[in-house]
Amino acid sequence: MPTVSLAISGLYIALTTLLVLSLAMRVSALRMKFKVSIGDGKHQLLQLAIRSHANAVEYVPLALLLLITLENTWQLPLVTHAMGALLFVGRALHATGLSQNANSSTSRLLGTLFTWLMMALSGIAIIVFYGLNAA
């Protein structure tokens, strides 16, 4: 069993943390602007900001666990960087698209696609690795 390393995934943990914090700060700023402490006060900008932050919080933790596991099972730095970049770019695109309007947008669609692709490929790679090493 490989030793735990966060040499690469740590970079993407830090980047996505900064992204999630920026989304949280946007929610807080809009709450102050609209004088809303709980809920969204029926302000569409605040609704979008809340959903953008919540969506990141829903996907990022599991995706980062997959990234850490991928880094420590396959130990292929280029693959880990590719999956980390796919996650970060995907989350940034999705946040940008959702923060601007509630309608579908190219950046929101690509953000979802990149995030799901990263998660699916990482999950499959980990299953394959453990399946091959279990025999």
Q: Give the averaged pLDDT, no decimals.
A: 94
CATH architecture designation: Up-down Bundle
- The coarse silhouette is elongated
The biggest beta sheet, please?
none
The oligomeric state of the chains shown is single chain
Instruction: Find the structural class using helix and strand composition.
Output: mainly alpha
Describe, in plain words, how this protein is organized in 3D.
The protein has 135 residues and is an all-alpha fold. The protein has a single domain, classed as Four Helix Bundle (Hemerythrin (Met), subunit A) (Up-down Bundle), CATH 1.20.120. Helices cover 81% and strands 0% of the residues. It contains 4 helices and no strands. It has helices spanning 9-34, 44-73, 77-100, 106-134. α1 runs parallel beside α3 (77-100). The longest helix has 30 residues, at 44-73. The protein is elongated. The two termini are 14 Å apart. The mean pLDDT is 94.
